[in-house]
Fold:
Amino acid sequence: MHTIGVDIGGTNIEVGLVDQKHKVSARAKAATPSAGPKEFVKLISKLVDEVGGEPAALGVGVPGVISDNVLVKAPNLPGWSEKTDFRGMLAKKLGIPVGLGNDVDVGLLGEWVAGAAKGGDFVLGVWMGTGVGGSLILDGQPYHGVSGGAGEFGHVIIHHDGALCTCGRRGCVEGYGGRRAMERTIEHRIDAGFETSIDEIRQKKHKGHFTSGVWQEALESKDPLATAMFRDAVTAVGVGVASAINLLDLDRVVIGGGFAEKLGTDLTSSIEEVAQPLMLRPSPNLTIVPAKLGDDSGVVGAANLAKSVVVR
Amino acid sequence: MHTIGVDIGGTNIEVGLVDQKHKVSARAKAATPSAGPKEFVKLISKLVDEVGGEPAALGVGVPGVISDNVLVKAPNLPGWSEKTDFRGMLAKKLGIPVGLGNDVDVGLLGEWVAGAAKGGDFVLGVWMGTGVGGSLILDGQPYHGVSGGAGEFGHVIIHHDGALCTCGRRGCVEGYGGRRAMERTIEHRIDAGFETSIDEIRQKKHKGHFTSGVWQEALESKDPLATAMFRDAVTAVGVGVASAINLLDLDRVVIGGGFAEKLGTDLTSSIEEVAQPLMLRPSPNLTIVPAKLGDDSGVVGAANLAKSVVVR
Structure:
């Protein structure tokens, strides 16, 4: 059985035909439209046709909150109303069963069935991107909480009344470890006269933002400001990971997103160095590892979500 | 079917015969011995005889770490070796099936079957005592993590590099909200010349420690130092609760232990006031409530654990 996985990101929509062994056998891609769900349905239908095959079902990962299969909120997709039966719209248009998931949940699901989370029954996924996303697998099953809002690792508080977070609260992991928050901080510091080469690196690479690649180059050149700020980011994630382990007794932590893709085990070792002394009684089997599937985790995870819909 | 619940605390061992409706129909009690597990088995057997009835099974809550039904560690019981098959020892002596649980897990279980956690499927229990204990019910089932170490809410970090905790780490909830840590802090402050009536209250009540009752009286008399320190304790618990909710999307938080027994909804409202603005997207059904069963939660929970052993 082949199924289709759709990964809706802030920049691109990626569609893949995925086989039983979680291999992506055909792909299609388009820029994420700045329009409402109807446009997305049309575009996804077109991409599914491009990919071909005879998919039994489709799964889709959306950057938003999902409760009872309904998209409650997608604050990062302009033009999306507060509540949408996106799953129903897609199923009607395509004529196959559709599964709907949060983008980070779907990414961790991909890593769980075919990547770095494979074999773990108690897993925290931390996606370090524009924000810091989180997702949980507990007792061998994806965990969503009472109303689908679980996994907000980025808003675990590591410093009560600490740095301002992008959510407007203070002291969250994301306020130190998310690229958007880091960009705001580094711009303040550049304005305040701190010396750094990171802005030149950004310009040289023709980037409008401080991307993971820009950070990587600044870290490799041992830029002091970038190094200090990245240490703060790693510390925040490490402290949050320790809190999650003390509360949940996990066997695996998977770090994904742009930073993990660029820095791999350098990043996860630094996070582990912070977290280890703060853990009360970690399982001897606990490992902290980088995601393995890169951009494919979302597509593979979404295709796997599709399978569960068919089984139902 | 009647079962026996045994609650081993630092001060007393309480034994109760509990019916199907979670009512305690007979009781016995003794001081916790300062001896190894063998003495406990003898004493519990004696107390079970005193209670009478024809119990089908027995459940016991122990202040320690349990993994695969084996007691891995009980640091607060002097004379207990590192690893003990306490369940097996009790079952052999008594000739009935025995279930073994952590004391806080068993307390929350009691509240779940017959008290303040009843009806909740995603519950955090916070027991504010000498330390700050924690326990979780997730997706309608008690949650223990990969190796039985889950629920350490007291060691969720709310201030990276903050106050020294009794575990030797810094910034944990327990470092602000556990009575042992609070006692250490208030003694330092008294030594440093802070004015407070709490030590006089303690002496007047003939207490060797700053008990929940001593704190309550100091708070009622509006002692400024006690008030400020208790606010720090409530803040720490509130911030930790918010982090847990952001990560786990819960529908119930139950606050138990001495402070909750003395202060009830005054305590839970104060905790909610701190936590509410720090929650990202709490369930509309979320409530933060005090435990209802008082000292009985452990006995009722342990007796319920016994039932699950019989069913197996």
